[in-house]
Amino acid sequence: MAQIENVIVKPLITEKAAVATEKYNRYGFVVNLKSNKNQIKEAVESLYDVKVLSVKTNITPGKVKRVGKSIKKTSKLKKAYVELGEGQKIEFFKGI
């Protein structure tokens, strides 16, 4: 995991993440499964120019889905919730 661009896959844009952003100044990201908390902190700080206070991660297991007669499994995801310093924020949709 040498490159910072490979750590963060995409931001989490959900209702639950929006509530956490408003209440606790906490933002959610889908990250690479092999990335650790230090790499996530460095990636967010360098990409968005903010100061990160804490990083919480969880791995969501894949679900078993039935497609016709076959059974398939979705891939697992690693989510990271990043808490920022007071007065800082991240603009996901600039200029929209």
The CATH topology corresponds to Alpha-Beta Plaits
Q: What does the radius of gyration come to?
A: 15 Å
Number of strands: 6
Q: Kindly, what is the distance between the CA atoms of the first and last residues, rounded to a whole number of angstroms?
A: 32 Å
Helical residue percent band:
10-25%
Number of domains: 1
In CATH terms, the superfamily is RRM (RNA recognition motif) domain
SSE-based structural type: alpha+beta
Percent in strands:
35-45%
What's the order of the H and E elements? Answer: EHEHEEEE
The description of the largest β-sheet is:
4 strands, antiparallel
Q: Quick check: average pLDDT? A: 92
C-alpha geometry: globular
Name the poorly predicted regions: none
How does CATH name the architecture?
A: 2-Layer Sandwich
Look at the structure and give the CATH class: Alpha Beta
List the strand order in the largest sheet: 1-2-6-3
Question: Count of helical segments?
Answer: 2
Notes on the structure:
The protein is α+β, with helices and mostly antiparallel strands and 96 residues long. Helices cover 23% and strands 36% of the residues. The chain has helices at 15-24, 37-48, and strands spanning 8-11, 26-31, 52-60, 64-67, 70-73, 77-84. A hairpin with a 2-residue loop joins β4 and β5. The protein is globular, with a radius of gyration of 15 Å. The relative contact order is 0.24.
